Amino acid sequence: MPIFISTRESDDQLRKKVREISGQNFQQCYQCGTCSGSCPMIEHINVFPRRIMALLQLGNRKALEESNTPWVCASCHTCMVRCPRGIDITKVMEALRLIKLRQNIDRIELKKLEPEQIADMPQIAMVSGFRKMTS
Ligand code: SF4
Ligand code: SF4
């Protein structure tokens, strides 16, 4: 996905909010890429974790909102364990999700699921999915 960078779009409010919710200083990220290289969901996300950190440093709300990465993130903590800067990237992903959910914006809608999908899906996946993706 192409990303256009402009300092005019820098959103300091977003940076502050993510720092407040996650407790993480993502400004310490030096773009080594270890998190991206470790992520088991890399084939399914459209912005690599390293890039998420760069977008946050730039305060690029638009690109972050267009990314599916915080929603696809499996919260496996691998990136956090391997980050040489000690950044808990999992918490940053959670903060990005919460910022959306707190606006009462759901990522998935129960009504839109097909009955076959509901019948096939493991109940634990349903419960965890709704906890993660609905406000
Ligand atoms: S592993 Fe840590 S320092 Fe390296 S790119 Fe990811 S967040 Fe940044
Ligand atoms: S916590 Fe999320 S971003 Fe980090 S390695 Fe796991 S799936 Fe990837």
Descriptive account of the structure:
The protein is an all-alpha fold and 135 residues long. The protein has 2 domains: 7-103, Orthogonal Bundle (Fumarate Reductase Iron-sulfur Protein, Chain B, domain 2); 108-135, no CATH class. The chain is 53% helix and 0% strand. It has helices at 12-22, 34-38, 49-58, 61-66, 69-72, 78-82, 89-101, 115-120, 123-133. The longest helix is centred in the C-terminal third of the chain and has 13 residues, at 89-101. The chain is globular and about 45 Å long. The site of one iron/sulfur cluster has 15 residues, from helix 6 and helix 7. One iron/sulfur cluster is lined by residues 29-35, 49-50, 53, 83-85, 87, 89.
Short description:
This protein is mainly α. The protein has helices at 12-22, 34-38, 49-58, 61-66, 69-72, 78-82, 89-101, 115-120, 123-133.
Roughly what fraction of the amino acids lie in strands?
Answer: under 5%
- Poorly predicted ranges: none
Number of separate strands: 0
Question: DSSP helix count?
Answer: 9
Q: What characteristics describe this protein?
A:
0% strand, globular, 135 residues, 9 helices, binds iron/sulfur cluster, mainly alpha, 53% helix, single chain
Set down the secondary structure blueprint.
Layout: H1 12-22, H2 34-38, H3 49-58, H4 61-66, H5 69-72, H6 78-82, H7 89-101, H8 115-120, H9 123-133
The structure holds iron/sulfur cluster (2 copies).
Residues 29-35, 49-50, 53, 83-85, 87, 89 line the site of one iron/sulfur cluster.
